[in-house]
Amino acid sequence: MSDLNVKQYETCNSPTWCPGCGNNPILIAVRKALVNLGIEPHEVAFTFDIGCNSNGANFLNGYICHALHGRSLPPAEAIRLANHNLKAIISFAGDGGGFGIGIGHFIHACRRNIDILYLTHDNQIYGLTTGQTSPTSSKGVKTKSTPFGNPEEPVNPPALALSSSATWVARGFAGEINHLTSLIEKGIKHPGFAHLDVFQPCVTFNKLNTFDWFRKRVYKLEETDYKPNDKKKAWSKAWELDEKLPLGVLYEEKKETYKDQLPQLANEALVEKKLGSVDLTKAMEEYK
Ligand SMILES: Cc1ncc(C[n+]2csc(CCOP(=O)(O)OP(=O)(O)O)c2C)c(N)n1
Ligand code: SF4
Fold this sequence. Notes:
Blueprint: H1 23-36, E1 44-48, E2 63-66, H2 73-82, E3 88-94, H3 95-101, H4 103-112, E4 117-122, H5 157-163, E5 168-173, H6 177-189, E6 194-199, H7 211-215, E7 218-220, H8 231-238, E8 245-252, H9 263-266, H10 281-285
Parallel strand pairs: 1-2, 1-3, 3-4, 4-6, 5-6, 7-8
Antiparallel strand pairs: 5-8
The structure holds thiamine diphosphate (TPP) and iron/sulfur cluster.
Thiamine diphosphate is lined by residues 50-53, 69, 94-97, 101, 121, 123, 125-129, 134.
């Protein structure tokens, strides 16, 4: 029997997030999901953005790439094309990096259906830079950068994922660790691009969208007769934004992944390619 346990996913650094921050339970859920799936740290790669959320790069054991702000997806996609054997590739971002500067990467990753899990820590604020309005902040909300109220409509992440052809779209809540753990497991197992947007209260800078605020509104789709196989119904669920906020898998479908459609990649990862008669010795000398 495997002796895999969550300790193997810890590092010598303890989380430095504010006490009560929603990033803490997300980290716990990620570790638990990987252990539940029997995935060892050497079988997983994590890519991170810049933001409070992505300080998780210091607290998770595995192959890590800490990318630029808004750029956690491109290295995750590259890793998947280069290595088909990793059992999980998880890319993390905040709502600022993921749906602001990085929004183009998000849309194209959805369209490509590359086999990775994209987990967005959606706290509806810029946390690391101390509380400015983010792309998912509610209209009218007052923050340091919009002291008279946010004049913009928020991005709706699950609706954007659906309209960009994502094959697995889900929403979790940092206040529901077990439910979140099971969503992460499902997202990892989904063969294709999986987007999991997680309500992650920022207890320091977002005084509106608190744990209590979410607890009063969230409900689990699994506890209803909802089936996540109809895009029109998923679209309606994604727009339930007021008094009731659905948690769970909104939509899933099986489609060929990016690599499966390309003969040059389908059976061989980039790193496994044989170079045939090409002699690279001279070129490699130049890098010495
Ligand atoms: C190209 C670039 N633009 C801006 C910044 C400054 N910056 C760092 S983190 C951040 C926003 C963080 O908010 P979010 O992505 O929501 O993550 P959180 O801190 O809330 O987890 C910004 C604007 C940067 N590092 N790089
Ligand atoms: S500022 Fe907000 S998001 Fe950042 S660690 Fe503190 S509570 Fe978490």
